[in-house]
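Form P-L/3: holo structure prediction, ligand glycyl-adenosine-5'-phosphate.
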Amino acid sequence: MEKIISLAKRRGFIYQGSEIYGGLAGTWDYGPLGVALKNNVKALWWQMFVEEREDMYGVDAAILMNKGVWQSSGHVGGFSDPLVECAKCHHRFRADQLADTKKCPDCGGAFGEVRQFNMMFKTHVGAAEDDAAVSYLRPETAQGMFVNFKNIVDSFHPALPFGLAQIGKAFRNEIAPRDFIFRAREFEQMEIEYFVRPNDWERFFEEFRRLMWQWVEAIGLRRENVHELEVPAEDRAHYSKRTIDFEFDYPFGRKELYGLAYRTDFDLSAHQKGSATSLEYFDEGSKERFVPHVIEPSLGVDRTILAILTNAYTEDELGGEPRSFLKLSPTIAPVTVAVFPLLKNKPPLVEKAREVYAMLREAKKTASNNIRIAFDDNGNIGKRYRRQDEIGTPWCVTVDFQTLEDDTVTVRDRDTGNQTRVKIDELTKTIFR
Ligand code: GAP
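OUTPUT (holo model):
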């Protein structure tokens, strides 16, 4: 884990939040390569879960919502973790994560009573700081979709089953944020609320279970490192009648990556009551009115990034030298191909490399949007290869003296280090496949 965190910082993927002020626990800032990786992950999810289907409707709801939303959803009353505080050192812990709930693991002092700690961040909207102005930062994106159910039905008249999809930030005042971006206080979710007839829930639960496995494959995680866990009734969220967690083998153990839940009609019924607005669906075929039931695949963006980094981090030896690199799939790598001149101070080489770079960028416009091309002439060629390996770039293209004579370049494969000579004309065929 130390090696992954250090690589992420050194190479500009992820930094500690507010670092120059000593940080703010549970917050992380994504640097240029982290943003690129995250954007690729989110774009791929949107493509697979929304664009490639005809039954999905995207929304981007406000993070701040009327407090009534959170009262109805059960979050004001029940979105809490058990908290204990040491009477001696005053360190606080999540009681359900302690082996011994009697003695403080930091100083051996005695714990006070376990109390429920609500994890929502509370704030005030507008100039007044009274109870009427209270609002919360959303702890899940889901509710932004439930409260837009009626809007989508009224605007689009979708036939059941259909889903709302959203990618966005969520906030939880975690008692013990830990393990890098695994448990943060501010994170991102990619969620779907899929509305079905009550009797159809099992069929669609299975459909999304399969789609989640396809997703695991699409982002290049090794299947043997992902495990399903049937969550027992006592551990399920208050709204769920069935939950399967998808767990991943992180360096710190097997922990939750994603969740797939059958939320029944819990949320729509609660909002129908709380807002005094009908959220029933009218089925034109059967002429029935009913509150649809919901299947919810919920995927954390940051846990996905951590799983991808863990999965990709590799150490080997190349040319007698130890090396560490990221074996990222070309679909999500921040840079797909890096173009170099062999030497920085030889103008004909630099000009030619710039030409090849421009040619690839032009070709990308028609070939695929899923290709990212970089130009790199920093340091010597060995250092450039090392840097590109560390950030997971699958291919490096080098323009050398031979290029000036026969219009061929070398294409180096990240995983093997092997270089092949390719005609510039055929470069796009080799890379855009
Ligand atoms: N809408 C359902 C929901 O929010 P959840 O299991 O509480 O369910 C869903 O969260 C996903 O969000 C998790 O599987 C995980 O990927 C991510 N997640 C939850 N809490 C997180 C945290 N503190 N830091 C990072 N990711 C988190």
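COMMENT: The mean pLDDT is 95.
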